[in-house]
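Forgive a beginner's question, but might I ask you for the amino acids of a protein and the tokens describing how it folds?
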Amino acid sequence: MQGPFRIYFSVDKQDITFAEQLERHLRQAMPGTELLIWNGSHQVPETYRKQAAQFLEKTQLFIAFVSVHYEDTSNARWELQQALDVYNRRSSFRILSVLTRSAFIPNALQGFPITPGDHDPVEQSGLSVDRQLVRVAETVRAMLFNAPKAPKYSKVKLSLDLSDVRERLLPLLDRVDFKPVFDLLKAIAYDAALLKSLFEAEDAFTNLIQQSRGLKTNLEEFLAKKEQYRTQLQNIIQYLQADELVPAWERIFIDHYYNFQKAPEPAVAPYFFIPTEHIAIPETLHLPGAQGAALSAEAIGLLSYQQKQDFRRSLLLAQDAIAIENFARAYAHCEHVRTHIDPESAQLYEYLLITYIYNNKSEQIITDALRAEGRMLNHTTLYSGRLQRYQEAGDCPTSTGTYNRRVAAEILSDGMRNVYESWQDDYILDTGKRTNPNTHQQEARNFIEAAQLVYRAVHPMRGALRILINELCGGGKFNWVSRVVFAADEIRLLSNERFDLESQITELIALIEVVDAGFPEKQAQQRLLLRENLYFNLLAKRQLLAAQVAEEQRNNQQFTDIYASVIRFMQACLLGHQMFGEASQNNKDQSFLRLALEYLLPDLVIDPDPVALFPHLRWFDFDAKGNFVAHDDSRSYQFEALAILEKIVQAHAGKAGWMQVAPNIKSAVYHQFNADTEALYESVKTGLKWTDIRRMHPVDARKKIITCLQRWMSAYYAFPELGQPMLDRIITEIVGLGQMNWLFHDPYELATHPDSLAYGFDARAKLKEALRFSQHHTEASLRQTIAQHLFEARILPAYNAIEKNQETQRTLLVRLLLECLTGYRLHADSAMLDFVYRELTEEIKFRWIDIDLKGHACAWPFQDDYQFDPLNVLELLHQQNPERYRRYEVRERIAQHRYRDLSTQYLHEISEYSKENRRPEREIAIGIVRRMKAVFRYCPKEIYLELPYRELSGKGRIRWYGMALGLLPTRENHFENQFYDFDYRYELFECKKLMSKQFELLRAVMIETGEIEA
């Protein structure tokens, strides 16, 4: 069974039917695959979001069923936001949009795959829903299974010298078969004399094997000659010189020994030594005679004459079949004896063991043990156990039994190696989108039991156990460490397996040492070789990971979850240190802790390995108060980087060493922290410079700058003695001299920009916090900077963009005027009051003050949201600076504006040809005359009465008097004047009267405005 795959359905209640039908199609499309699908319609509302968040953390695929109603509910919007957050944190997480009905794809889902198509919804007219859902199911299956495969590399560089080669070749001489040693030596040898010696030794060893198969030698002679060849090979290895090897011998040896170049071909199994002694006839059966039976040969458990004859004949036939390499027939003869006679004979079970392994092949036996019920391996262990039992009991003993059991164990060990090397898993490389759903880890779990079974039931061996130790320590193909915890001030690496990982490794190491019991030097060499091989395997994995990531970056496609890969690598380093400790004096550089430190903090070690440098990975951070903590990216993987770093340093230098190193670590992280912040801020600056489609969206820019501001404050708290530049950056940005506006007038007080508050950032409070610690800024200077910036960068541009006399924009201008007054209260800059004064008195954009018919000023009729009173504002300006903002000057300007308006109205609406003016024009002219007199009363100047006097005296455009008989003018009012209660003679008299009293009226106005004293 594959999986499990977790799929999250984010669906509106109106599209539940589509979701349920898709679930059925998915289960039909992927039989044998375990699918865990989240459907919110079946969840309890009270715990919905909590359970959904937990499910999302482990989900591989998020499916959004898009329709016009998708974003109507808060839960759907929350689910989408959570999915985007997980997508940004975990590269293996994927998002798919399923267009159920015709609708626009939400902005948040733009850029993600859409199925069945951009304009091809599931509910498509002319196509059945099932047909569309089949297409969707195929897309989902492809996204789950068709992950890109990790490329393979063979350019692994390991620092191996000739002494390391000797250390690895000499243990291979303990094998029954020397072929691996010959192959490695021939691959790297260059000297003709050396090659000649190797070929001669290999031919002699091959002849020895052939002699043993031809029954031309006994076991003692075979072992004696084999020991001679072993000594010869040992001498060759001990005296190897660099000039005898090919120039690229390091590369060749590494590729062949560690199998980096290609999957290894199954090695030729070491030959069994076929027994040469005569066939011993057993006397007894395997089972004793039955109680109470007659005292016949069969009843007391003895073989009859016919059984003995059948036994001897069958084994002879088996020997002949083995000689002609017909192992199936040989096994059949031996199985016939076992099933029909079942004697107590060590020779019989030796033949059974040999023929069964030859007939079924070691790889087949091991594969059956790892993937099925293991019956084939049980047969092998059964035959080996019976062989050992009868050998010890003296029942038809064989001189080759112990040797052949050792050969059987080595054959099975080689089979385990071949099967293991055929797996393409690599837990360091296969992360993120490269995660392999068809992992062989369950088979690896069975590998542990199978190897121990062969070790105990067949014969002690090292090969498979070495592979297992390297695998469980993290140098192999699967991840066995689930998390790192601390207990009793010690690091503990826990596994989700049914066994304790460290205890299991310790047990396997002990089993290897038992093989060499009584040879302390050899035991130490075995442990040292295990450690070195693990170190070099981890070193190779680091290089493969760096090459894989570089290839992805070159193709601009990131599939690997680098954080997950590096964390797994460091956990393997910690486990290697737990099991093997520090390196010996001869190999000081081979430190597992150094491998981990080169990832955690390269600045802490001298000459870090370049392949361990991933500049974008961050393990340490500073919180809001400047405390040195683990980075959120590492904590999301349940990896406490800071605590682990402390334990690593203490393991190397003790607590005192940590106290000395900690400040340096914090300082290095501080500089890295500031560099990251500066890079983020520069990216915003660059993005906002563009004026086309490349320009960064303001929302994204604000989010990033908020992050920068928070990080600058954290940097100050971390190192206050170095943090004044950070405070300067915060203050410069918030007061408005940076990239964005953070403060504004609301309009009566200074407040934080609402876009900042929407993201939980109170710029005003943050500015107060920074000012409290700043040594370069004062509150007065900041008030001035903020007020001037808002005036120049916000108010004036907005003011200039307002169109003249566009009443829809009057409310905006009222707000700007109020913001200017608020800015003046923040900092007393007369330019802001001048701005308000000029607009209200010069009426650049709108009219603000009118004059009623009684000659009194009043607000121009308009509507706004702030109940703005321009007369009150002008009075406040006068009170603030009487000499600069004089009341009389206000009157003069207002009167002049109203006079200009009335004059313009008169010229535009009253025809210069009096015969064209009718009653509507008369009405307009009467209003102009009356308002002109009001303007004069408001500000007594002769010019304001010129037009009324000229008009009423008969020199204007309206005829105010009547005509006798329609021909002769009279002094009577025009009959139309009565409709407007207008007597032109009275009005003319009043104009003359006002002109005569101009001095008195002007004096009264100047006294009223404070120009002169009474």
User: Anything to note?
Assistant: The two ends are 106 Å apart (CA to CA). Confidence is low (pLDDT under 50) at residues 261-269, 288-299. The first strand starts at residue 2 and ends at 10. The chain has 36 helices and 15 strands.
